[in-house]
Structures are given as C-alpha cells and as structure tokens.
C-alpha cells in the first residue's frame, strides 16, 4: 500500500528533510481498498483538472457559456412540443415545459458526467502512462465542469419558475441532497466505464447508446404519471427515475416519492460510488501497461 | 557488485558504496529490495482486443486461462542509494532502465519486491507531460506543477523562478500551442526542476533543447544534488552520465549487474557486447513476436578504415503464414551505447515479403566513424509490431587512423562525434 506523499512543510529542507515521510512501494494486493485519504491529499489535481475542462470547453467558442442554457432549453422545448402537444401526455397541474426542463436539468448532470468521463482516461493517456497521481481523479473531475453547468442552468430554472408563477416552497432546500446523490451515482458509473475503456474501446460505442436508451426509458421528457400501470415495476427499479422525482418534488411541487425510494436512492448512489471506486482500484494496476 | 538478494538490515542498512558527498544519514534515500516486474504478453493472434472477443473467449474456454507469455522487465533488483548522490542508470535498450524509473515514480506497480523512499519522488519522465496545447503558459505551469505533486502555494512561491529559468516571461499568457519547441521544453523542464521533491527521477529529457539550455539543466540537477537531494538519471548519452553522475547502476536484461563508480559501469557496458550477442544467438530467447527471425547478421569485415564503406549481411527466415510485408532496421552503436546511425529500410522504400527467406546487405557509406568498437542491433518490424530484435547481433572495429590526407596531432580530429566529409575552398 502506498502512503500519501509527504506534506509540504513550507520551509526548504534540502536533502533528507525532517518533514519528509517515507514512501513504501509494494505490489498491490488482489483487492485493495480505495485510498480515500490519498484522494483528499490530491484534491488540487481534481480542481485543476476540472478547471482545465471548463476553460477548454468554452475557449474559442462564440457563444461560450450560453450553450449551457441553450441546450436544455431547446431540448425541453422539443419535448414539450412532441410529448406535451403532439402526444398529449398528462402532466398534472405544472406547465409541461417546466416538467421537462426540470427533467433535463437532472439528466444533463448524469449524462454529462458519464459521457465525458468514459473516454477521459484514454484522452489523457500520456498522463496516465507518464506521471503518478490517483488516476481515478481523471474521470471523477468531469463532475466539476458538469456541476458548474448545472448551477448556471439552475439560475434559468429560477427565472422560469418566477415567470410561470410556480413557488417550489421549502422543498427546494433539499435540492443539494439530490444533486449529491445524482453526482455520486453518475461518478460511480463513469469510473467503471472509464476504466473499462482503457482495455476495451467498445465502451465508447456502448455508453452513448445506453445513455440514449436511458433518456427515453427514464421519466425525463414525461411525467411518471403518464406511465401505464403495467410498466410501473420497471420504473420503480430505475434509480434515475427516483432521483428525477426527487428533483421535481424540490423544484415544481410534484409528489414526494415513497419513503423506500428515498432510502434506496441514497443507498444505491453511495453503493454505486463506493463499488465503482473498488472496481477502479482493481483495474487501475494495469493501466500504465495497457493504455 | 551484483544484484544478489540482500536482506533488508532494518534501521541500519549497510551502504553498498562509499557515499560520495553524502551527509551522515540513518537511512538511505532509496532502498530497493528484490524488485521484479513482469509483463504478461499475449500473442497477437489470440489476444482479445474487444470486449466481445474477451467475453467469447471466456465462454468457449471457461476453465482455461489465456495462454500468456511472461516477460521479465526486471528481475530481483536490489540496491540502495544514499542521499545527495546523482546516480546514472546505464543499459541497452530494453534492459529495464525506464521500467525501473516508472516503478520508482509509481507510474506502474512492481510485481514483487519492496521499495522504501525517504520522501517525495518527482519525475521528469517525458518533457511536457501534462501540458495542454490549448492552455496558456501560466495555466500549464499550475496544471503541470499540481500533477507533479506541488501545492498551489508552492507553485505560487516559485512561479517567478520557474518563468525566469525558462525565459518565457513575455509569453505567459499565450497558449503553449503557439510556443516554439524550445520554449515548450524549457518551460516543462523548469516546472519539474523546481519541484522540491526529495528524490528526482529524470529520463532522457536532457537530449532536447539547445546546448545552452542543456548546460543550464545539468547545472540545475547538480544544484539539486548539492542540496542533499537525490537524482536518478537515465540517459543514452554516456557523456551526460560521466559529466553529472557520481555513481551508476548497470542493468542488463532486467538484472542489476553492477553498482558503483561511473567508469566501472561504463566498462561493464562495453564488456557486455559478447554476453549479449551470445544470449541472442538462440533466436527463441530474443524479444519480438518471432514470426520471422534473423538467421545471420554479420559484418563483412572485422576491421574497417574510418572512410570505408561498412557492409553488414543480414539473413532472415521465411514464414508463408505471415501476411503483409516487413522492413528492417539496423542501429549502429558506439562502445558507450550511443546510436550513431539509424538505418531504417522504410526511408528507402525497401520492404521484404515474408513468403521466402531474405538475404540482404546494408551498405553504410557515411558517416565516417571514429576509431573504436561498434555493435549493430538488428530489428525486423511490421506495422507497429517488432518481429525480431537482435541486440549486438554483430560488431566491427574502426582503425585508429583519421581519414584525412594530412596527418596532424589528434587534437585536430578528436572533438566531433563522427569524422565529417568536408572541404574548404577559396571563393
């Protein structure tokens, strides 16, 4: 097991410095625990990577940050047109546009993290094979830019709520909890897909396809109330559907999901995240030799 | 001194070599015990590349593990390095130098063994790793510094030093994709060199940049060592090792054959020719996928004058099963292991078909080689795939007479790496 690198003591001690902690390198065990302590030590790498992604994304774009709101706005508009006006799906008392925009907000966090994270290790192959740092930070740091995007899109949500005269009430205070659960779930998934991509580039084709299926299989463009009763079991098993309803409860006064879903949603998100870290830890050993 | 497995002596480990200029320390900077690294290489034909193939292979043969060959990049290597020394790693291509550095810098994990290091390890494995072309110089300094393990406060306090060292003050807010190669390299080296790690691993980076900058880098590394930190240096240029290092490790085929003075390691390197050639005589032990093998590689003569055309005969076996053509590469190395000529047949449009045995000859007209011993490494390559690698497949000597019409003192000819074929004319 590796001990984390020595803490910088600020003062310069040439040679064997007093503050230097020895580093021991031994072969990794078959299953080793994710080194959360080391991740915390390397949090600056996470922030730098995240900030880099953000800078790169909007450098040399004409509209820049406007893309962040334009994309969910247009998508929600199309959904409203297709599912609300053409298919005339039921949407209760909330305007259809708010329903689908709230769905897109949550969906963009999930799909953003998973789709960007999947190829991240391969894109940064030169780093992975040349420098040492906890590699899991590469897929994890995609969450940084995605959450910033979410925050901007959320401001527009506030504007929309005011415009439509919908008051979310106290429920809105629970929103950060749902965001954390969603980020944990997506990060757990993307850590695994990113690790698999190193070995099997098939993932680059599978992941977008599965995401596309999920976009329609989860109640994003429509309300769960529009789902026929015989499919309820299927939707009750989809952790994304739970979180989507939690989002909508906080934002647009939709019914709170049953207690078991709240509990399961917390358990599944944390479980997927921790499980992903374990799986990644096991896959990570061979990265530098394979990538 | 050899790499015999040596028990770790606890708190009072024995120092293998008299520590040059090292302060008295209770423990060495680096202690490596019984270090091995093996790679599992599947043969290309049956290695699963896609998830489907891997899955199918599992389903078809659920109980057999994939037949894989293991390749030992490092075998039971043990050594200790005292604080404040600059240690050179010497060895031929594939001797395990880079693998050793990668393990020490934790880029890849060892298969067995144990390493104890007295502090942080900074690495300079390839210049500009982690530099992003779209980011500005300033942004890249922060990004790269963070990756190398510096804290933001550390980078901020050394930022001016880094920029001054690299000499890119005016271009800090320019994207590095607009930098010249020289500026790029200087900035990258500057960041890594200002990392206050206790141990620094440097691989081949001094080969880039102009002479002035190289001198500056060497001076910086010396300064690092004077400060009591430890530097591990891999270089193919023997001169760099001689200039900079106070001791050296000599690796051969994954084993540590020598640790001690630089001269001794270079001597060992020179003597390794015969051993390596003999090891390569049995084609099955040579690296490469082995679909075709060199059956003979032979210099036409043992002795050449400097300006003679050097001729090497190469014979390769046939393999009708192998699809596509392959090409040959020959490296001519001097006795310090510097590659003085790279003869890649692709650049001449010369390819071979594997369906019949090939007999060819390589004629090397220039450069005129300096007096000394030369070895030839022969490679057969297809796509990105090395079919056969025969190191030190043959050798020849070059006579000690300069190829020029007028005899002078040796000082008139001893500077260049090779003898140039030149004229002076009055215009």
| Shape field of chain B | globular
Please tell me the total number of domains of chain A. Answer: 1
- Total number of β-strand segments of chain B? 17
The residue ranges of chain B in which pLDDT falls below 50 over 5 or more consecutive positions are 1-25
Structure description:
The complex is a heterodimer of chains A (291) and B (427). Chain A is an all-alpha fold and 291 residues long. Chain A has one domain. In chain A, 65% of the residues lie in helices and 1% in strands. Chain A is built from 14 helices and one strand; from the N terminus they run E-H-H-H-H-H-H-H-H-H-H-H-H-H-H. By secondary structure, chain B is an alpha/beta fold. Chain B has a domain at 284-403: Distorted Sandwich (Coagulation Factor XIII, Chain A, domain 1), CATH 2.70.50.60. Chain B contains eight helices and 17 strands. Chain B has helices at 51-60, 97-104, 137-147, 152-166, 181-193, 211-226, 238-244, 262-281, and strands at residues 30-42, 68-81, 86-90, 112-117, 121-124, 199-203, 230-234, 247-252, 255-260, 294-299, 303-304, 310-316, 327-333, 339-344, 358-364, 372-382, 385-398. In chain B, the strands form four sheets. Chain B has a six-stranded mixed β-sheet with strand order 5-6-7-3-8-9, sandwiched between helices. In chain B, helix 3 packs across helix 5 (181-193) and helix 4 packs across helix 5. At the A-B interface, strand 1 and helix 2 of A face helix 1, helix 2, strand 4, helix 3 and helix 4 of B. Strand 1 of chain A pairs antiparallel with strand 4 (112-117) of chain B.
């Amino acid at each position: 097991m590796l001990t984390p690198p020595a803490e910088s003591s600020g003062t310069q001690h040439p040679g064997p410095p007093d503050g230097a902690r020895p580093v021991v390198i031994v072969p990794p065990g078959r299953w080793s625990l994710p080194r959360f302590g080391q991740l915390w030590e390397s949090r600056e790498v996470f922030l730098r990577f995240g900030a880099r992604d953000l800078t790169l994304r909007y450098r040399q774009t004409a509209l820049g940050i406007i893309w962040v709101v334009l994309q969910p706005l247009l998508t929600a508009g199309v959904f409203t047109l297709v599912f609300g006006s053409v298919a005339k799906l039921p949407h209760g008392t909330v305007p259809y546009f708010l329903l689908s925009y709230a769905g897109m907000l949550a969906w963009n966090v999930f799909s953003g993290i998973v789709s960007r994270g999947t190829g991240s290790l391969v894109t940064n192959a030169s780093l992975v094979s040349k420098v040492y740092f906890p590699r899991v930070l590469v897929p994890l740091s995609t969450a940084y830019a995605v959450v910033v995007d979410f925050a901007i899109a959320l401001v527009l949500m506030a504007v929309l709520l005011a415009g439509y005269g919908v008051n979310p009430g106290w429920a809105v205070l629970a929103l950060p909890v749902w965001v954390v659960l969603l980020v944990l779930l997506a990060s757990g998934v993307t850590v695994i897909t990113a690790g698999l991509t190193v070995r099997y580039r098939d993932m680059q084709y599978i992941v977008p396809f599965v995401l596309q299926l999920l976009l329609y299989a989860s109640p994003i463009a429509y309300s769960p109330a529009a789902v026929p009763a015989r499919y309820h079991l299927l939707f009750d098993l989809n952790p994304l559907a739970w979180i989507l309803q939690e989002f909508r409860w906080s934002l647009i006064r939709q019914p709170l999901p049953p207690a078991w879903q709240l509990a399961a949603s917390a358990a599944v998100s944390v479980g997927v995240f921790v499980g992903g870290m374990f799986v990644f830890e096991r896959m990570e050993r061979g990265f530098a030799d394979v990538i | 001194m050899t790499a015999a497995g040596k028990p770790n002596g606890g708190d009072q480990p024995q120092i293998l070599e008299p520590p040059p200029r090292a302060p008295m320390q209770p423990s060495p900077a680096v202690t490596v015990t019984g270090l091995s690294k093996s790679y599992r290489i599947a043969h290309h034909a049956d290695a699963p590349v896609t998830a489907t193939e891997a899955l199918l292979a599992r389903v078809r043969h659920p109980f057999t593990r994939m037949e894989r060959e293991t390749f030992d990049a490092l075998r039971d290597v043990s050594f200790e390095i005292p604080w404040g020394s600059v240690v050179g790693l010497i060895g031929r291509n594939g001797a395990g130098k880079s693998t050793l550095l990668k393990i020490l810098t934790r880029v890849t994990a060892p298969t067995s063994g144990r390493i104890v290091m007295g502090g942080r390890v900074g690495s300079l494995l390839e210049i500009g790793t982690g530099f992003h072309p779209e980011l500005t110089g300033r942004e890249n300094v922060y990004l790269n510094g963070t990756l190398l393990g510096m804290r933001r406060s550390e980078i901020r306090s050394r930022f001016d030093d880094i920029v001054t060292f690299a000499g890119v003050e005016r271009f800090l807010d320019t994207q590095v994709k607009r930098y010249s190669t020289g500026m790029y390299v200087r900035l990258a080296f500057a960041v890594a060199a200002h990392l206050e790690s206790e141990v620094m691993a440097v691989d081949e980076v001094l080969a880039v940049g102009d002479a002035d900058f190289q001198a500056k880098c060497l001076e910086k590394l010396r300064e690092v060592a004077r400060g009591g930190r430890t530097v591990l240096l891999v270089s193919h240029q023997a001169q760099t090792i001689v200039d900079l290092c106070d001791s050296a490790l000599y690796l051969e085929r994954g084993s540590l054959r020598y640790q001690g003075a630089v001269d001794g390691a270079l001597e060992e390197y020179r003597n390794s020719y015969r051993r390596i050639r003999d090891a390569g005589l049995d084609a099955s032990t040579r690296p490469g996928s082995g679909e075709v093998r060199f059956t003979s590689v032979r210099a036409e003569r043992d002795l050449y004058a400097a300006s003679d055309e050097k001729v090497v005969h190469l014979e390769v076996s046939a393999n009708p099963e192998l699809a596509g053509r392959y090409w040959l590469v020959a490296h001519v190395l001097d006795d310090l292991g510097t590659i003085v000529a790279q003869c890649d047949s692709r650049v001449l449009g010369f390819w071979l078909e594997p369906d019949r045995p090939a007999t060819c000859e390589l004629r090397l007209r220039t450069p005129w080689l300096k007096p000394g011993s030369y070895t030839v490494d022969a490679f057969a390559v297809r796509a990105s795939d090395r079919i056969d690698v025969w190191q030190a497949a043959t050798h020849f000597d070059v006579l000690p007479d300069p190829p020029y019409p007028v005899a002078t003192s040796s000082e008139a000819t001893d500077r260049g790496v090779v003898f140039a074929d030149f004229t002076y004319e009055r215009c």
